[in-house]
């Protein structure tokens, strides 16, 4: 009897070490890093995502949730661009699988998204065209007959 107890007691420290190691691995395992980068051509535009300024392009920020995002890109001399982009989750983020990738998967998973935007220069109308259109609208309003602009 005593020899059996001694054998059990000898295995106990090994079991505890194994159990502690498994707990540590479980706690330390699993991590998904999500990052989106907005690049513009030309660079140097102010970038906002969901009405939060994230910086000057190329600008990057981390995110937690997938879905539709509103991007606003502004730069002097260029037309302000407002884009709606849907960011779909990768296969490992579907319900059920996300628990494994977020908690149990050993190591880090990176989800990098890049949004490229081509900026369009502002086109300034000739002052003579603006004056002609204003005169036309003025004369239409005086006569009481307004037509749609061409």
Distance N to C terminus: 103 Å
Strand content: 25-35%
Question: Using DSSP, what is the number of strands?
Answer: 7
CATH C-level of the largest domain: Mainly Beta
Helix content: 25-40%
Tell me the CATH architecture of the largest domain.
Sandwich
> In which order are the strands of the major sheet placed?
3-2-5-6
By DSSP (H or I, 4+ residues per run), the number of helices equals 3
Q: List the secondary-structure elements in sequence, H or E.
A: HEEEEEEHEH
**Coarse morphology:** elongated
Count structural domains. 2
Broad structural category? alpha+beta
Radius of gyration: 31 Å
Largest sheet: number of strands, sense, barrel closure: 4 strands, antiparallel
The mean pLDDT is 80
Q: Any low-confidence stretches, pLDDT <50, length ≥5?
A: none
How is this structure best summarized?
With 150 residues, the protein is of the alpha+beta class. It has helices spanning 2-28, 97-104, 127-143; strands at residues 32-41, 46-49, 52-56, 59-62, 67-74, 81-87, 109-118. It has two domains: 1-30; 31-123, Immunoglobulin-like (Sandwich), CATH 2.60.40.
Q: What does this protein look like?
A:
Helix content is 35%, strand content 32%. With 150 residues, the chain is an alpha+beta fold. It folds into two domains: 1-30; 31-123, Immunoglobulin-like (Sandwich), CATH 2.60.40. The strands form two sheets. The chain has a four-stranded antiparallel sheet with strand order 3-2-5-6, with no helix packed on it. The termini are far apart.
């Amino acid at each position: 009897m005593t020899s059996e107890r001694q054998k059990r007691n000898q295995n106990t420290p090994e079991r505890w070490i194994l159990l502690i190691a498994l707990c540590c691995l479980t706690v330390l395992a699993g991590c998904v890093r999500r990052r989106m980068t907005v690049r513009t051509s030309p660079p140097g535009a102010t970038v906002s995502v969901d009405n939060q300024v994230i910086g000057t392009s190329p600008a990057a920020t981390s995110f937690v949730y997938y879905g539709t995002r509103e991007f606003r890109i502004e730069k002097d001399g260029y037309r302000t661009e407002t884009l709606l982009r849907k960011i779909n989750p990768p296969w490992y983020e579907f319900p059920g699988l996300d628990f494994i990738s977020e908690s149990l998967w050993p190591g880090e998973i990176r989800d990098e998204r890049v949004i490229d935007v081509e900026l369009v220069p502002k086109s300034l109308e000739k002052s003579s065209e603006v004056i002609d259109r204003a005169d036309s609208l003025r004369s239409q309003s005086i006569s009481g007959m307004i037509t749609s602009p061409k």
